[in-house]
Amino acid sequence: MQEPDDRQPIRFSAPVNDQWNYLLSTIWNQMMHLVVILDGRLDEERLRHAAELVMEAEPVLACRFVEAAVPYWEWIPSLRSESVFSIAGQGINSEKSLRDVLAGRLDPAAGPQAHFTLVRGDRDTLVISVNHAVCDAHGILHISSLFARAYRALESNSGFSLSCASPRDRSFSPLLSPLSAKERAAARECCGEPSAEWGMPWKPGVRGRPAYRFRAIDPALFQKAKAYSRSHGVTIHDILLAANFASVGREIPHRGDRNYPILTSTDLRRARFGDDRPPVANLSVAFEVWLPAGMTGQPQNLVLEAHRAMDEKKHRLVGMGSAIRLEETFSSGFHSVREHLLEAKRRSLIEGYPKNPFFSNIGILPIPCADFKDIPTRQAFIMPPVEYSPGFGITASTFRDTLTLSCGFCEGPLKGGTVERVLFSMEEFISSLTRE
Known about the structure:
It contains 12 helices and 14 strands. By secondary structure, the protein is an alpha+beta fold. The strands form 4 sheets. Strands 5-6-7-2-12 form a 5-stranded mixed β-sheet, sandwiched between helices.
């Protein structure tokens, strides 16, 4: 539906952090999902209404990305209900329906940027799907919390509404501007330049399809990991990063006498305590951590090394350095960066060059993001975007006492069995680390 000529289109700025994730969506699937597995059945109409309220409360979700010399988000004046909420799985295999929903893709250039799906089965599963082009994992948890809140409120108040988000700067600028020139230089130096040292073996030129695997870690084992982190002065992230490094090291050919990089991420919202940063934004950035391949069979030592490396990166503000590097990348313009990415895609398909593995720890999912009142939530976890080969990434998220490891990948160039071995190996690493 076109807007009348006498109306100005409603537009939102698309900072470089959005532009980067949009461009990535042109070469692979940038959809993120929150999967909520319930112990009962929800009210369809209330869910539909709640989804519509969320889109009104966060209007950037109801936008399309417009490519231009200076790209922007443009509000879609009229959204059909089915473009926001749908039901899957009625009368068919609910596990297959869930796989199909996860493999779906929202085109950021067409919009909207979020969709809510109810997968019907013996027990309901909700999938909140959001384009990474518009926000990071923090954003999807905020969106799901609004959704669950509206669903609960609509039971007794059919006129309930969510307050509309006030416009805020979604760029890196408010976070970078307080840094001194010395801090900026140190952060940029710590960040360094991206490299391609190693990567999961794959078959270049083979067409694949989006696929997903996830593995829930036994709560008792996770409790042991938390106890270990407290007693040894390390973080859960240190443990999981080391576990991931050791596990991909079993699959990737490498030399035992070298250090290799693994990508991980940090949320810049945590960098300035007390700052009011917009939840629906891309404020998480990636950076490399180099670890010794010779320690992959020594869980305790590798965790200590991961802790040392992460501590140094945090102290030197590596996240800020990553943001500065991204702004530098876009100094040549949006279209120039797109050409660079297309060339990288061409090289990966033809030459098969590697891409360093990626690990992201979302952390603890807040209870309100999966609180549907009288229907208990059995499990909730984040499913990351599909990384097309040679990319490979694992995401960890924790709901209540269950840690879930998940992976979105391109099956064909990479086998599902390989992904399952990595997930199992990470669990074995944690078990070996905490074994008395």
